[in-house]
Request: fold
Amino acid sequence: MAPTCKRRVSGKALANGSVGVIYQVFENVAEKYDVMNDSMSLGIHRVWKDILVHKMNPSPGTLLVDVAGGTGDIAFRFLNYVRSVRERQLQQKLRHHQNLSWQEISKSYQEEKSNPLGDSQVVVCDINKEMLKAGKKRAQHLGYSEGLSWVLGNAEELPFDDDKFDVYTIAFGIRNVTRIDLALQEAYRVLKPGGRFLCLEFSHVSNPLLSRLYDLYSFQVIPVLGEVIAGDWKSYQYLVESIRRFPPQEELKAMIEDAGFLKVDYQNLNSGIVAIHSGFKL
Amino acid sequence: MLRGAAVRAALLRAVRGAPGRAGLGRAVPRAEEEEEEEEERQRGGRVPLYPGHIPTTPLQKALLAAGSACAALWDPYRHDMVAVLGETTGCLALPKLRDRMRNDPEGYRILQERPRIRLSTLDMARLGGLPDGTLGREYIRFLEDNKVSPDTRMPAKFVDDEELAYVIQRYREVHDLMHTLLGMPTNMLGELPRSVLPTDPSDGFWPIGIPDPRPREVHGEVSSIPVPAPLSSVICEVVVKWFEAVQTGLPMCVLGAAFGPVRLNARKLQVLATELLPWAVRSGRNASCVLNVYYEQRWEQSVESLREEIGIFPPPAVCV
Reply:
């Protein structure tokens, strides 16, 4: 495939982390985003995202907003999860009502067909048009049509009303937000009372040996992968540096509590390479 | 290279002075300095030496070389990967090439003046107006026929010396001229040079610069001499790569030369092995360094005379 003409992003601009520059970075990486994720994390990012959705444990009827959801990884997993829960619910219902007439049984089959998601919905919100485009294409390719909406929006200023969503997730996105406190405040605003905030993000490894191996891998291998696979060294150098600059687990927990969330906790995955932070609006 | 960074860091510290003491510069908090050093060390311990330079550690270079080789083999249209492979493996061959340029008067001038072959520096209209058979005219014809532009060459990124970066850049920009000099156009279906070809286009391709010995159609009779069929673009690229491998010694050329013919059929391989490659290797050995020719000052020279001057033998006429 011939290399596409990409706008070069200067290293200094990347270091300052302005919104426009980050936009360009993700514009450059959108096409190869999923391939790069698989090769950089050796496919482990899929397990991390699976764990996030299992921790969420959504029931049918949940309204989820996935911010910085780009290519739709969390959204698709949510829909799969909710669909399988719904199927199990309907099967349970049938089993408990052994004395149903044939008409009632066939009605319940129709119900299952007409509402496989049980009114669950996910809104994928991303600041970058290219990422949303890539996500929509993927959804079409994988056959997701129902219960999915794609919205262009900034995590620091969400285009939604207050108290709308049951769950707010942001997976590997909060690192790229310039004002994390604003994003957390927005998350608090759009969640319903009782709603849950979930954040999946790279964090700090405390184990010194693992930390050195992780640093070596990050700084030596990942930009090379970026150059070889996506033809873009600088964007992946930026990625690795932005991970180092991100606040560690306890600091992020304090920031989430500052935004008003309660029962804030975090779970380390892979000794802290990745952490899931969770909080409730009560 | 790491030593260099340590020396520079020590100098900086000496200039800035420890916090509290009267140093020559502002007292910078120790933590910030350490962070900067840490980042520099992680980036390969160097600052960019020229626009577009990405400093890399030896480990990164090794990984890049392996990765780009795999990527180029996997997808032959990844020209950027071929370029990266050339840069990361050329650390021995490039200095030798640079020294050969330094030791030659014309090459030395090129290193001083640093001419670039780009659309902005070439006067395309003037070159197109030159007589047929001149270097300028045939080069423009090559660019037009193959719909390539000299601006598509990647700038050097991973070469850690500014002069060597120019040498590899010059090598890339001269590649198209190599095609012209060797008479190896990569596209047979475009317009063919009228001055050196028979008037009947169905007769196919004849290399540039060789008088056509085949008899023209006379009184309706068609010549019985077997007509050479068009050479495929892969064969042309392979021949040029072999020539360049002999001339420059760049590992990337050697790899390209070795792996290029892999996907060709037996007939083409035979033509390559028996006629084209021996000629390319002989010419490469006999010719002086092609990077030592100041092409920008020789547009009016005819291709034939330039070939003689450099020492490239006339290309063979082949049947495929």
Observations:
- Chain A has a mean pLDDT of 87.
- Chain A touches chain B through 19 residues (CB under 8 Å).
